[in-house]
Structures are given as C-alpha cells and as structure tokens.
Amino acid sequence: MTDSKTITGGRLLVDCLIAQGCDRIFTVPGESFLAVLDALHDSPEVQTVICRQEGGAAFMACADGTMTGKPGVCFVTRGPGATNASIGVHVAIQDSQPMLLFIGDVDRGMKDREGFQEVDFGQMFGPLAKLVLRIDDPARIPEYVARAWSTAISGRPGPVVVALPEDMLLETVIGVAPRPAVHRPAQAMCPDAMATLMQLIGDAASPVAIVGGAGWHAKAREYFTTFAERIGLPIAGAFRRQDAISNASRAWAGNLGYGPNPRLVERIRNADLILAIGARMGEATTDGYTLVTPEHPGQILVHVHPDPEELGRVYRPDLAICADMAEFAEMAALWDDDVVPFDAGEEAHLQWLDWSTAKPAPYALDMAACVTAMRDAIPDDAIICNGAGNFSGWWHRYWRYNGFPTQLAPTAGAMGYGVPAAVAAALRHPERTVVALAGDGDFLMNGQELATAVQYGCDMLVILVDNGFYGTIRMHQEREFPGRVVGTTLHNPDFVALAKAYGGWATRVETTDQFNTALADAQGRKGLRLLHLVIDIEQLSAGGATVSGLRAKARG
Fold first, then answer.
1. What three-state secondary structure class fits 314?
2. HSE on the CB side for 340, CA within 13 Å?
3. Cα–Cα separations (whole angstroms), residue 473 to 388, 391, 399, 476, 479
4. For the segment 220-234, what is each residue's pLDDT rounded down to a tens digit?
5. What phi and psi values does residue 424 have, to the nearest 5 degrees?
6. pLDDT level of residue 2 (50, 70, 90 thresholds)
7. Do the domains 191-353 and 357-554 sit in the same CATH topology, yes or no?
8. Alpha carbon distances (Å) from 415 to 124, 405, 446
9. In degrees, to the nearest 5, what angle opens at C-alpha 218 toward C-alphas 213 and 49?
10. How far is it, in rounded angstroms, from Cα 175 to Cα 218?
C-alpha cells in the first residue's frame, strides 16, 4: 500500500481501489491507462479479468455489482472503448446497479483539441450516469475514488464514470495515501411512518406489495418475507426482480413485467393499497404506467425507497418513506401491533403455482417442459443469467427463483447481457451452478465472452435457444404487419462447433427428450458447456403466442 515513497498516479489509483474493497476488475486494455495495468501487475489483491469487448466487460461489472452490493469495476480506453462500454452504463443506471467505469483519456494538454479518440465524457455520459468525474491532479485521486465509490453505492445505486488523463496516471506524487473505505449510509426507518403504514394495512381490504430494486439484499428479503407471511400479504416481484423473495414463500404471488399472470394483474388492479418496496414502478413493471397509474385513483400508494429523489418523481405517493430496505423490513417484521391476517397471500401463491406449472404443448422441443426439467436437475441457488428476448419469458414464467441472488437480468432490456453476466457470476460464486440463457440473436451480441469464460476456467452452462429470427421483433411484426417478414430473419453459425472452438463442450438439441439427456450430460461435466436448442419459430413466447395465431387475429 501507499507510503511516503514516490509513486505514479496509476499506482495510487489501484491502491485506492484496494482500500475501498475492490478485488476484481474487468477490462479491455488500452494504451491510455498502461500505468494502471502496470500497478495491477504488482497487486495480487485484485484479479484482472481480460475481456474481449468493452460491452461485455461493462456487463460483467454490472452483474458483479448486483451480486456484491459493491461497485463492479471496469477499465476501458477512450473513444471506441468508452462508446462500447456505454451500454453497461445504461444498464447500470436503469437497473440501479453500483458500477465504476474508468476511462483512460487524452493527456491534459491535449484536451478539447479533438485529439486521437477524444470524447467529451461529461456530455456523453451525463444523461446515463449518476456522476461523471475527471481526475486532473494525481494528488486528488484518493478524494475522487472515495467520492465515486460512495456515489455508486448510496441512495439509488448506479454507475459513476471517471476519466483518467494518460499523463496524470504517469505523473508521480509523494506522501499521498488512500482514504479509508466508505460504506453505504443506512437511512433508519421512522417509527411514526411505520405506525401510519400499519394503520393503512389494517384498514385495507385487498393490499398487495411490489418489491425489489434499489438497495434490496438478503437481509431485506428475509425480514420482509417474515412480515408478509405473518399478515398474509401477497408479494409481486417487479420486472426481473424475481429473486427479491423466495418463490417458495407462501406470500409469493409472481412477477410483473412482460407476460405476467392475468390473475396477478387483476389482483393489482383491484388492490386498494399498494406497497411499492424498493421498486421504481417503471414502465415494464406497470405495463406502460397503466397497471398502476401515476395518479392511481381509488388506490392508496405507499412508496418505500432508499433515495429521496425517487419518491414523488413519477408516482404520487400517499405515504412516502425514505429508508434503507433492510432497516424498513426489519422494523416491519418486528412490529408488535397486531394486524388481522389476510387470506390473500396463500391464495395468490396458489394462483402463481398454477400459472408457473407447465402444460403439455405440441412442439418437438417444448420450452416450458425444458424449464421444468431444469428445475428438477439444477440446485435452487443456481444463478440464472439472461439478456433480452422472448426466450427469457419461459424462465420468467416457469423457473423458481428460490435463492439470492439467483437472477441476473437487465431491466433495461439490453441484449447480450446473459453470457458476460454468467462469467461474472461464475467468478464470484464458483461453488454455485451458473446458467447463461440466450436467444440466437441475443447470443451473438456478446458470444465472444465465451473466450473469457474458458480463459478463467469458469464453470457455466449456456442454453442457447435458436429459432432463426429476432423472435421478439418477429412477434411484434406479425401482430402489426402479418406475413410481411423483413429485417428479422437470421442466418446463424454452427453454434456447437463455435462453442467447441472456444474450448467448451456442446451439443445440439431438437426434442424435449434430447434436452433431458443433454442436460444430464452437461451436469456431469465441468467448465464451459453449451446446449444448442433448435426450436420452431411457431413457438413464439411463453405466453402462447404463435405466428399462425397472430396472423389469424390480425387478419380478422
């Protein structure tokens, strides 16, 4: 660590990250931050994960931040590196993930001349990040790193971008030490607000909770489950927050987002009291702000969130509570005033069990049956990672997210997230089963990170669902312009050969029986394994949409 010796800005930066608790960075190297790479050479405390594209590296940092609650750290170079990594910054802000993106920048004396690969990062990342910083004085590196770390984890977690001029990193300083580790401030719960909330619950006839999001973690999960089960409160997960509560809980009512259980949708429409706990009530969760409207007439809305700027930002809360999720959940669980239990919790759970139980379908490779087979073969604490596309809907509907964290999926709807997220998960939790889910279009957004998985010995299973199309867009196309297919057809490589070329094991699957056999074979192996599932485009979604059905409906 830093002492009175003369050191470079790059060495000081790495020492500051170590002091904050950083143990892994994801990077595509660039000449603009060679001083940082040199310092990492002598820093066994930090694993340097070399990625194959900056978008993949940024996604890995997003996923790592979600799993640890600490900022995932990514280093890229200026220009092409920063623009490639910007997708991860967008995911991190929309998903409320703590992340630090460090960008090697042009020398200080070249700024604003449009030098080689120069970008104004303040303008570029200003709308995407919580904060954009530039360190021009190496003596201030401890201050800036502590500020960036604190901003990323505080309130609603999110990404912070830090520009690092190349010459600043090479400049030397003496006697400058890292700041002590900063910690997420925990806003205590107000007892008067809790008393008001309990009174609202006591007066309600049909309350429901929507949970998951900023600051949610294992402790909040445990305490809120205890509270909800005690009073019979149905709990719905916000979009892609299905591991916020164990799906085995008798209070779990299912997930919101795309293709939710119609009976859950009806329950929320008929609720007289809605508790939004950690959730932002975004577009996907609320079906375009229609399931629960910003003014929610006839419904009382209690919004609990760790960031005061989120309260009242879109929705009009009848009771706004700014509190740490665990502090709130613990006080709720330990509240000693009696609330007459509702019958709705277990009823909603039974409705979800029915909805999430697969029914036979007339396809050679039945996706719902495949997910059911996975439930029987894979441990409850498996980490399921997916990008965007209709393929994910089968797991959203039929998988049981019982452990935590077990769902890494972008609420921002970014394609190509699943494979990089699985690499991050396999590195962070080598003792657990990690599954990457991808469609054929989704996979080729970041499939190159299979090379990273093999390089670092990641033990992960990839399930690639191939229908030869951008399936989600094809579905919308058939709904709006039936039979007029353009721009959505894909010519794919031999995915089995591709996975083997990277150094993995792979097999092609065309029937449900073949899937069961292939899954068992994959489970008996280690390292990178890929199942290439070839399905009929007619099987469009977990909700039952088909090409023929959409065309018939559109044509009357």
1. coil
2. 6
3. 11, 12, 24, 5, 10
4. 999 999 999 999 999
5. -60, -40
6. very low
7. yes
8. 21, 21, 9
9. 80
10. 40
436 vs 416: CA distance, rounded Å: 10
Confidence of residue 476 (pLDDT cuts 50, 70, 90): confident
d(CA 363, CA 174): 69
List C-alpha distances in Å: 161 to 25, 90, 133, 202.
Answer: 14, 11, 6, 45
Paired strand residues for 75: 27, 102
The gap from C-alpha 272 to its chain's centroid, in whole angstroms, comes to 30
**CATH class of domain segment(s) 191-353:** alpha beta
Q: How many CB atoms lie within 10 A of CB 480?
A: 10
**Confidence (pTM):** 0.95
Structure letter (DSSP) for residue 489: B
Please answer whether residues 234 and 251 qualify as being in contact, where contact means their C-beta atoms are separated by less than 8 angstroms: yes
Domain ranges of the chain: 6-174, 191-353, 357-554
Burial (0-12, 13-18, 19+ Cβ within 10 Å), 241: buried
Q: What tokens were used for 171?
A: 């400049």
Q: Residue 420, preceding bond cis, omega within 30 degrees?
A: no
Q: Which fold has domain 357-554?
A: Rossmann fold (3.40.50)
d(CA 294, CA 437) in angstroms, rounded, equals: 34
Give the span between the Cα atoms of 188 and 107, in whole angstroms. Answer: 45
Which CATH topology does 6-174 take?
Rossmann fold (3.40.50)
pLDDT at 353 over 60: yes
Structure tokens at 359: 């029914």
Full 3-state SS string of 156-173:
CCCEEEEEEEHHHHHCEE
- pLDDT by residue (tens digit) across 399-445? 999 999 999 999 998 999 999 999 999 999 999 999 999 999 999 99
Handedness of CA 75, 384, 97, 95 (dihedral sign): positive
